[in-house]
Amino acid sequence: MAWIFLFLAGILEIAWAFAMKESQGFTRLVPTLIMLGAMVASFGLLSLSMRTLPLGTSYMIWTGIGAVGAFVVGVWFLGEAVSVQRIIAALLIVAGIFTMKLA
């Protein structure tokens, strides 16, 4: 169950990062509220996962899901630039997450 909580926390991290971007510096109410709700839920689920999982593993996977997910959302939905270097960086993060899970 801890892994499910951790995965959902990572997905919510992507959601709050996207909502933060959409809030335009907290000047738009609805995205700001979505961001706050997703943040609270993400931290709550991360906390639940840490009851069982080690700190280093859970935090690294949570931030990795958020970082790679935010990169994908930025490219897919916001038209952000794609370069070989950015793709390699995202793949290295995924490789790190995979290696941490195996350890």
From TrEMBL:
GO terms for molecular function: transmembrane transporter activity. It comes from the Bacteria. The chain crosses the membrane at residues 29-48, 60-78, 84-102. The keyword Transmembrane applies. Keywords: Cell membrane, Membrane, Transmembrane, Transmembrane helix, Transport. Its main location: membrane. It is a multi-pass membrane protein. One of its GO terms (biological process) is xenobiotic detoxification by transmembrane export across the plasma membrane. Pfam families: Multi_Drug_Res. InterPro entries: EmrE-like, Small_drug/metabolite_transptr, Small_multidrug_res. One of its GO terms (cellular component) is plasma membrane. Gene3D superfamilies: 1.10.3730.20. It is found in: Cell membrane. The keyword Transmembrane helix applies. Belongs to the drug/metabolite transporter (DMT) superfamily. Small multidrug resistance (SMR) (TC 2.A.7.1) family. Gdx/SugE subfamily. This is Guanidinium exporter. It comes from Roseibium album.
